[in-house]
Amino acid sequence: MDEQRTVKVSKYLSRHLRHQPERIGLAPDPGGWVEIDTLIAAATAHGFAFTREELDHVVATNDKQRFVIEGTRIRASQGHSIDVDLGLPPATPPPYLYHGTVARHLDAIRAEGLRPMSRHDVHLSADRDTATRVGARRGRPVVLTVDSGAMHRDGHVFHISANGVWLTATVPPRYLRFPGGN
Tell me: domain 97-177, CATH 3.40.50.300, correct? Predict the structure, then answer.
């Protein structure tokens, strides 16, 4: 499977497992799971055919491990805009986590902190390199440091997704450190 096809299938899966399952007639269970055979049939019926082998390749080679297969089912690891309960237990975060963004959002973040926007949770990275790559998707990246240890001590709940993304409901401004100082 060539890289272009891999990316195309991955984007299709993200769109329909994270954001618009109803567009192709999928009805994920409360945990976001859909039967693989149902997904492949729905995609084919809506003009985007792919094989189980292609699906397995995309899941296995995705650099961010965006998807998880469990038995005969598949779901996105995180990043849903649809209502799902990933069933992730609370987890103790490392002392610091990181968030990649771009400069045009900094004023709003200074005022309001990090909010989930159209997603269920704020996504945080365990290392600066990953946060830099995330921020770079929207322009020149700016990496914010999150005092996740203090947040946790203050009662904020964290979860970690199957692919290592740290999730929390919101990050108030007082827990953020900006490049060059606050």
Answer: no
